[in-house]
Amino acid sequence: MLREIILRTIRYSLTCVGMRYTVLFSITLYVYLHMYRGVLILVVTLALSILMVIASTLSDRRNIVQFINVLNLVGGRRKVLFTAAAVFISLRSLFIAIVYGTAILQSFNLIPIVLFIHIIVVMILSLIVVRGGIL
Amino acid sequence: MSIVVIISHLWKYYTASGSSIAILKDINLTIRRGEIIGIHGPSGAGKTTLLKILAGLERPDSGEIIVEGYNLNLLDDDALALLRTSIVSYIPQDYGLIDEFTVYENVELPLLLIGLPENERKNSVHSILEYMGLRDKERIKVKYLSGGEKQRVSIARSLVITPSLLLADEPTANLDWDNAKKVLELFNKINRDFKTTIIIVSHDTRVLEFVSRRFILYDGILKEVGR
Predict the structure, then answer these.
(1) DSSP, res B169
(2) What SUPFAM superfamilies does the annotation carry (chain B) (predicted)?
């Protein structure tokens, strides 16, 4: 049951406009990380990538709120609602994470911290969405 | 006839700019199985709030609501969600559909949450789409449908779990009168065929011609106005 909901959430998230912004940002980030190296670059791009995830979620806020509301309406439990919100938002972080993942090969050893921060951001945003406080 | 809904001394308040306003005032209502209830009232009278409380989407501030023997005050959020997959279905004014999904996928959604196997889901969705005359549109995305068709999809989704209580919030608000009449006749057909108890709230008085008991909700007070 949850697997089907997750798959539909992924499909729905991919059709939303905020995803396109995230993909464009990821391409830019990839070029940037491979041209410039250093802790400062990493910190700045981390801040920008977090802003990107927030902006992307905000641009799709009507879609995610509608999706969660519909699931709630037809009897989705809190666990289902939270999972759907987390999947919807984390897909945006995933593209960025892949880019950072490729940067590990460029000997950026702070990358795991960057990815951990992204996971925290996704969890916080998901909680905000499910509690109806969006955004 | 057995009792489906008992509402006693229901109060609901909203807080607006620091002060508390009673949106529902001491509502008392008993509904028997198979009735079609029409609640008429102006915008802001509390009609939607009343339906949402019955659907377990909002909680009352005081009073008791019993639906099919379940005291909603005693149920947690997950238990109320379970109630919406088995006993109560709520049709919101904006249809509550996902535009990017097809008709089939929208109607299938409650069955996914129940965890029904795929072939059983398929049979249930197909039979309800057949009943609603939507079988030929099952692969069409909801965003390409007309208002009347969206309303029928929303009704189909609510019926797929065969609820005993159907709550319709302004089902005719976005439709012209011809389409509105068809939807109201459909509710009567559902009531006859499935013995479903139906509560329709509307600001349109013409809706009251299609119900068995009529109420007016004005300034938070509910009054019966005839059968």
Answers:
(1) E
(2) P-loop containing nucleoside triphosphate hydrolases
Q: Are strands B3-16 and B62-67 parallel, antiparallel or unpaired?
A: antiparallel
* Biggest CA-to-CA distance, chain B: 53
Identify the closest residue of chain B to A14 by CA–CA distance: B100
Cβ–Cβ contact A35 with B under 8 A: no
Comparing CA positions, the residue from B21, B68, B66, B67 lying closest to residue B46 is B21
Q: pLDDT for B78-119, tens place per residue?
A: 999 999 999 999 999 999 999 999 999 999 999 999 989 999
Residue in A31, A44, A46 with CA at minimum distance from that of residue A106: A31
Q: Does A78 touch chain B (CB under 8 A)?
A: yes
Give the span between the Cα atoms of B227 and A87, in whole angstroms. Answer: 49
- Nearest by CB to A75, from B97, B105, B113: name it: B113
Nearest partner of B87 among B162, B152, B154, judged by Cα: B162
Residue A40 is encoded by which pair of tokens? 């400062």
Q: Is the pLDDT of residue B37 over 90?
A: yes
Place of tokens 């208002």: B147
Closest by alpha carbon to B161, among B124, B186, B195, B198?
Answer: B124
pLDDT in tens, B47-85: 999 999 999 999 999 999 999 999 999 999 999 999 999
- In one-letter notation, the amino acid at residue B64 is E
Q: What is the pTM of this model?
A: 0.88
pLDDT tens track for A58-102: 999 999 999 999 999 999 999 999 999 999 999 988 989 888 888
Question: What interface predicted TM-score (ipTM) does this complex get?
Answer: 0.90
By DSSP bridging, strand B197-202 and strand B165-169 are: parallel
Tell the residue number behind the tokens 């996971």, with chain if given: A119
